[in-house]
Amino acid sequence: MIDRMKPITEQSQANPSESSMHTAGARIILMGPPGAGKGSVSDRLVDKFGMVHLSSGDILRAERSSGSELGETLKKYMDAGELVPDEIVIKIIIKSISSLDSSKGLLLDGFPRTVIQAKQLDDALAKMGLPIHGVLLLDAPEEVLLKRITGRRICPKCGRVYHIETMPPARDNICDSCGTELIHRDDDTEQVVRERINLYHKETEPVIEYYRKSGVKIIEVNADATIDEVVERAIEGIRQVILSEKKGKTS
Ligand code: AP5
Fold first, then answer.
1. Domains in the chain: how many in total?
2. Is residue 38 annotated as part of the catalytic site, yes or no?
3. Under a CB-based contact definition with an 8 Å cutoff, are residues 54 and 46 in contact?
4. Is 46 among the domain residues?
5. C-alpha of 154 from chain center
6. Which pLDDT band holds residue 251 (cuts at 50, 70, 90)?
7. 141 preceded by cis ω (within 30°)?
8. Among 152, 160, 217, 233, which one carries the catalytic annotation?
9. pLDDT tens for residues 152-201?
10. Which domain holds residue 96?
11. Does any domain span residue 79?
């Protein structure tokens, strides 16, 4: 959706045959705590393979800044690092999924985040004939996550993501792509990030177990590495998902 890392992704364009070989319409859920790199990895995969990226955080932030009444409600939860209630998120995200052309593959980033969301997603995708093929689980130690999130800066205009130490802009606090002043997300303070990480353990980790029990392939990706390495591991993970899907169909 939002093109957050364009200059890097431009360097990693792949040819179409590579794209179809690796992803072939794979529908993947990217899971992991805040700062694991879900958004950054998604951007690279989208540019490389043309998959559709749907980030619940981006969609909710867009609604939040629209000035709507719903946006005001979302702000309350998001600024505190709390999960937006299931009934609100499910309605918004499932509506978005059904309007997308996911023939080249689908990357769901940040959704589902509770078991209730996962069940509703499964029902909706079953009706569309588009079941999930696999879950990529990104993870890194908590201190790494905290450093990444508290140092993150975002361009409010084009959505490009920076980090004050590992990915700084050329000019201090100014977006390289569009010249807009960068912002620090309201929920990226240490206190709020700790709350988001706690909620991840409490509400989102059970979703992994839910998919494991449903027989969906779970691939664990060590995200404590450079972004290039993490992306390579994610691509290998998707390749494994596709292979096991093909095996399942032929056995
Ligand atoms: P959301 O925006 O989804 O936040 P999150 O899941 O907490 O994830 P982040 O975007 O913070 O982290 P990321 O893993 O994408 O990391 P990134 O790639 O940006 O959700 C925000 C809020 O919305 C929630 O708290 C909740 O209120 C609400 N919400 C969303 N979905 C919901 C749902 N389904 N149900 C209910 N509520 C929902 O990277 C972070 C930083 O690290 C960047 O600066 C990046 O440059 C850097 N970085 C990334 N990878 C590397 C690397 N390998 N090496 C060095 N630096 C790296």
1. 1
2. yes
3. no
4. yes
5. 16
6. low
7. no
8. 152
9. 999 999 889 999 999 999 999 999 999 999 999 999 999 999 999 999 99
10. 27-139+217-226
11. yes
CATH of the domain at 72: 3.40.50.300
Q: Report residue 82 as tokens.
A: 């709390």
57 within ligand 1 shell (Cβ under 6 A)? yes
pTM as predicted: 0.90
> Which DSSP symbol is given to 244?
H
H runs (alpha helix) in 80-204: 86-98, 115-128, 142-150, 190-199
Give 140 Cα–ligand 1 centroid separation in angstroms: 13
Q: Is 161 touching ligand 1 by the criterion CB < 6 Å?
A: yes
Residue 206 lies in a domain: no
Q: What is the side-by-side order of every strand in the sheet holding 106-109?
A: 52-55, 106-109, 27-31, 134-139, 217-222
Residues 110-132 as b or e (16 or more Cβ within 10 Å = b): bbbbbbbbbebbbebbeeeebeb
35: left (phi over 0), alpha (psi -120 to 50) or beta: left
Does 39 fall in a domain?
yes
In whole angstroms, give the CA distance from residue 131 to residue 76: 33
User: Active-site residue 160, yes or no?
Assistant: no
Residues found in the chain: 251
Q: Is 50 exposed, middle or buried (0-12, 13-18, 19+ CB in 10 A)?
A: middle
